[in-house]
Amino acid sequence: MVLFFDIDGTIWDYKNDIPDSTVEGIRRAKANGHQCFLNSGRARAFIHNEKLLGIGFDGIVSACGTRIEHEGKVIYNKLVDKEDAVRTVETVRKYGFKPILEGHTYLYMEPEDFLGDMFGEKVIREMGDKLRGINECWGEWEMHKLSCATEVPDEDRLKCFDELSDIYDHMIHDERVVEMVPKGFNKGTGIEKVCELLGEDVKNTFAFGDSINDKEMLLTAGVGIAMGNSRGNTRDFADYVTDDLYNDGIYKALNHFGLI
Questions:
Q1: DSSP bridge partners of 99
Q2: What pTM value is reported for the model?
């Protein structure tokens, strides 16, 4: 089997704390011959925590399926081309969005745009020297996708989405944050691409997630598992709901399905 795990809200909490049972469960699944992948909306540059990577995943699907690694090698990589990237930044700024451009080596943002913003300050703190300014690197970004702070009128948000609808699908996380992903890509297509490249049947996959950007992943996998702490209507897209991450949710689901 091939197992896919979301990160935020699934493997760890907002403080990046990972339950010991989660580490044990994933390692036991690997020892039983199952391949384990991270499958995250985070771009690869934002997946660098040593404890997380130290669990020993076989691969990483990052930036909603636009980049895939297996056994330390990049086996798929889709970047937004330069012309579209420049158009994107100019457009979102025109409508008052504050963008974070997400790539495999760096994230790009203007820190002053996110003063007092809890998520923005978390990004700044965790990225360190892997953070670059949008303006200082103008047009030279390596960009898989972007996220934006969108504290603007609904009318302006809709106009922006419409203007960029030929390039991106968007996911509204709440009234303040939107995620924009190249059309045709999501965590579900990431699963399909991994299976294609590894010669595995998609039916032989399990996926674990907790939020709306896990919808396609849960629907695509042979078995979609929602965490007990899932937000919104995420559970509606799952085949099974386990306990929350603080109460050994991953371990219990792995045990329930005989994977450990």
A1: 148
A2: 0.94
